[in-house]
Amino acid sequence: MSPSPAAPQPSPPRRWSLVVLTLLSALSAISGGLALVVWASSDDFVPLEVLEPTVFETFLVPGLVLMGVVGGTSLVAAIAELRRAAAAAELSLLAGGTLTVWIAAEVAMMRGFHWLQGLYGVLGLAILSLAAAACLRSGRLRPRWTVLVTAGEAVGYLAPATAGVLATRAGLTEGQQALAVVLAGPIEGLLLGLGQAFALPLPIRRLRYALWTALGAGVVWASVMSTMVLAGGEATPSPAVLVPLGIAVGAIGLVAIGGAQWLELRHHTAGAGRWIAWTALAWVIALPLSFTPGPFVDETTPLAANLVLWVCGGVLMAYAMALCTWQGARRLPAVADALRTSAPAPDPAPASSDA
Fold it and tell me: Which of 100, 117, 143, 209 is the most exposed place for a label (fewest CB within 10 A)?
């Protein structure tokens, strides 16, 4: 039997484009972050007045984040691309996403725009697009899962996030705000479900899987928002009622989506029940990231900036959730079999020639 063909590699132009772009991002972010740290409390590099709308008094923390997180991820990605590492495309995806989120959050928090931010925003999107294309064309399941699931959850999260912000700005009552979010919640589940359905190497009924996911998301949002309204109302129940209720709602929230998806997965793989536990763990890890914009927004934050920051939080949550759920997906027996089947065989040793 002939060996399985190796997974397709990114074309040389695309790979070298990623090398150049990630190196440019790394050098710019590291040098810029270092300058912000050195001149953290002075106007010598960037005027301190640009920080007035933010929670920062100096450039120390932004400089460290720019240098270590944005520059660091880009540098690691560039090295991986140069070395043709197996995870190069995924690291470039992380680098492009990190730069894009950084620029979006920076513009939103500073409530201003400079042409350099536009330039680096385009750079981040270019890296992100090239890396996503490389992941999808790689023939490997993990990169495909990372791209599709992150995209599905991030775009889906726009629905409840936007509904919540707009309902608050419209001055609706707490009950009306909760209803708006609950009605938008299934959209998040639908898009998450579609992303996972197209990424799973199983013959699942994709629309049914997505609809089950939408139902699970609706249950989560309804239980969470109703509890929040009850706890914040005038007739607040006693702690003896609220504490058990909160525990019950938390348990429902953790297992509702995975449990709904199990209804379809059980027909296509053994051990599908473990998927519920893995999705619960994923939400425990990822969900807190969606609240990262909280310290940076208040009633004075412009609507556009408010939305952008919450979207950034949603992207962080989506990426973490994709990474965590992949650990569960690859342990499903049917997916593990698909991974073994799709893994490229090692190159055969060259035949020895007799002297």
Answer: 117
Q: Determine the angle formed by the axes of helices 239-265 and 274-286, rounding to 10 degrees.
A: 130
What distance separates the 2 farthest-apart alpha carbons in the chain?
A: 93
Q: Which residue has the tokens 């929040």?
A: 228
Question: What's the gap between Cα 38 and its chain centre?
Answer: 32
Report helix angle 115-137 to 71-82, nearest 10. Answer: 40
pLDDT in tens, 48-89: 998 988 889 999 999 999 999 999 999 999 999 999 999 999
Cβ atoms of residues 92 and 22 within 8 Å: yes
Closest CA to 281 of 217, 313, 337, 327: 327
For residue 12, report the phi and psi dihedrals to the nearest 5 degrees: -50, -45
CA separation for the pair 46, 246 (Å, rounded): 46
DSSP string, 278-315: HHHHHHHHHGGGGGTTGGG--TTS-HHHHHHHHHHHHH
Q: Cα–chain-centroid distance for residue 86?
A: 21
The structure's pTM equals 0.88
Check: CB of residue 112 under 8 Å from CB of residue 38.
no
Write a three-state SS string for 51-96: HCCCCCCCCHHHHHHHHHHHHHHHHHHHHHHHCCCCCHHHHHHHHH
Q: What percent of the chain has pLDDT over 90?
A: 68
How many Å apart are CA 98 and CA 106, to the nearest integer?
Answer: 12
